[in-house]
Amino acid sequence: MSEPLLEPGLIGIKLGSYGVGAGTSINDPKIVPTVQNYKRQIASRMFPLGRRDIDRKVADAEYFVSRKIDGEFTVCVYRDGQLYSVNPGGTVRTGMPWQEEALDVLKTANIQSALIAGELHKVIDDDRRCRVHDVVSSARQPKSEDDLQRLHFAVFDLISIDGETVDQPYEQTWSKIEELFSGGDKIKPVETVKVKGRKEVQRKFDQWVDHEKAEGIVVRSDVAGNFKIKPLHTLDALVLGFTESTDDREGMMHDLLLGVVREDGAIQVMCRVGGGFSDEDRREMLSDLKDMVVESEYAEVNSDHVAYQMVSPKWVVEINCLDIISQNTRGGPINRMVLNWNKETNAYEVVRRLPLVSVISPQFVRVREDKSFNKDDVRIAQITSVVPVQKVDVNATELQLAKSSIMKREVYTKTLKGKLMVRKFLMWKTNKENEGSEYPSYVVHFTDYSPGRKVPMDREVRISNSEEQINELFEQLKKENIKKGWSIHEAEA
After folding, report:
1. For the segment 340-399, what is each residue's pLDDT rounded down to a tens digit?
2. Which one of 326, 350, 384 terminates a domain?
3. pLDDT (tens digit per residue) in 175-230
4. In this structure, are 253 and 371 located in the same domain?
5. What range does the domain containing 452 cover?
6. Could you give the number of structural domains in the chain?
7. At residue 1, does pLDDT exceed 60?
8. Residue 151 pLDDT > 90
9. Is residue 395 part of a domain?
10. Smallest Cα–Cα separation from 338: which of 235, 404, 264, 256?
11. Quick one: 285 and 345 in the same domain?
12. Residue 132 domain-assigned (yes or no)
């Protein structure tokens, strides 16, 4: 009998046979990294465009044009008559109706194993299209059997078949997808047509996006490249800071740091914008912004590693962008700093990082003189109406981070020429590793106090996400710094 693909005890049943688990429930440790790597690869090969870019950036070639579905990127995993799905964040799903259908298809085709990429989406009865939050809500906890039956899977790529990576022209891949799934009900190929030339690409965009309100189109060609074409998003954002250009563009503003206002009134950093300005805009803005500079606990640098000068939150600007993304390629949140504007001190105060988004290809449109700093004019709901964002409803100032826990503490002393020297080693678990990439799991801090030196206090910090490695780093620091003559003063573990 085949080994089980999942650990049954780690799958929580939600409704009927439908269960959900974490990546730790998968017995093959290579699956989640494979899914994450695939997501990174397709993201790097897919160029985002707006409708107006088709004429300039899409060559006259043959393309496969697919309707873009606003769902959750998911990979169907099949081996030895067993099947489940997993997303880049490691969420595992099993026992869904579309999966039962997929299982029958793959068994009938005599396929032994497969990794199939697609979009988990929900069939909606009314005129509006499916949005990703519809999918997330039903997949997290379906309200009924009908709710579960409405979750379907649209196939757009084959990652591997029978242990072999699929590396062939997309036309052959698409032919195989149609051969396997074209007769499906809950699992079927994503709606796709083959067209020739950019004019046909434009026509499909106009039909599916402008008239039928699809999220966008995906355009694939082995010769001319791959494109994700979507309507532009428009956002109103608060100007938080600026940088100045150098060399021959000295005297001009280089780019702006922008934010939005959360429901609790706090400001969250959103993105930078450096395109769409005329030279006259850049000169006039720089002159005005220099008069608005304020103090800030928070510092950020632009792509040229120049620090933003923070300004009082008075200006609102309109920008447009090609896409708004709420997850990184590993399926994790994109954390941005939340700030408090202190009117009394006229300064920004750091609150903490919370999930927000990445704004793709932002462009300045105009200054909104009719809008100002408040939670209506520059509301975070502009973003959450497009993509789901975690913890968007929490009060950022009241949300407490988990407290760190001390794992080891050792203090050594030595007297030299009548002066006491101290070397302290401290190791702790942050308990914040799920709060974002800026928080490591473990930290070692070494303090070296020697009153006879020109600079008496010296410090060194080492971090790791591995408990085994952090213990090794702790011992390594001790070996390097505790030699003959040092005696232990205190220790705890």
Report:
1. 999 999 999 999 899 999 999 999 999 999 999 999 999 999 999 888 898 998 998 777
2. 384
3. 999 999 999 999 999 999 999 999 999 999 999 999 998 999 999 999 999 999 99
4. yes
5. 405-492
6. 3
7. no
8. yes
9. no
10. 264
11. yes
12. yes
Q: Which of 220, 299, 236 is nearest to 273 (CA)?
A: 236
Hey, how many other C-beta atoms are within 10 angstroms of the C-beta on 459? 10
Domain match, 187 and 260 both: no
**pLDDT averaged over every residue in the chain:** 93
Q: Are residues 25 and 113 in the same domain?
A: yes
342 within some domain: yes
Do residues 177 and 83 both lie within one domain?
Answer: yes
If one counts every other C-beta atom within 10 angstroms of the C-beta of residue 354, the result is: 22
Binned at pLDDT 50, 70 and 90, residue 5 comes out as very high
Q: Is-contact 261 378, C-beta < 8 A?
A: yes
pLDDT band at residue 164 under the 50/70/90 scheme: very high
Is 180 in the same domain as 296? no
Picking from 124-128, 239-243, 456-460, which range would have the lowest pLDDT averaged per residue? Answer: 124-128
Phi, psi dihedral angles at 340 (to 5 degrees):
-110, 130
The stretches of 145-241 forming alpha helices (DSSP H) are: 145-149, 170-181, 198-205
256, pLDDT greater than 60: yes
394: in domain: no
Domain CATH code at residue 141: 3.30.470.30
Q: Does residue 24 contact residue 14 with C-beta atoms inside 8 Å? A: no
Asked if 411 contacts 491 with a C-beta cutoff of 8 angstroms, the reply is: yes
d(C-alpha 43, C-alpha 153), whole Å: 20
CA–CA separation, 339 vs 308, rounded Å?
A: 15
In angstroms, rounded to a whole number, what is the distance separating the alpha carbons of residues 88 and 325?
A: 14
CA 72 to chain centre: 13
Burial class (CB in 10 A: 0-12, 13-18, 19+), 113: middle
Q: Are strands 442-449 and 419-429 parallel, antiparallel or unpaired?
A: antiparallel
Give the model's pLDDT for residue 312.
97
Residues sharing a CB contact under 8 Å with residue 52, sequence separation 6 or more, in sequence order? none
Domain boundary among 354, 384, 414: 384
pLDDT one-digit tens code per residue, 37-54: 999 999 899 999 999 999
Q: Where is pLDDT greater, at 434 or 393?
A: 393
Q: Do 21 and 167 belong to one domain? A: yes
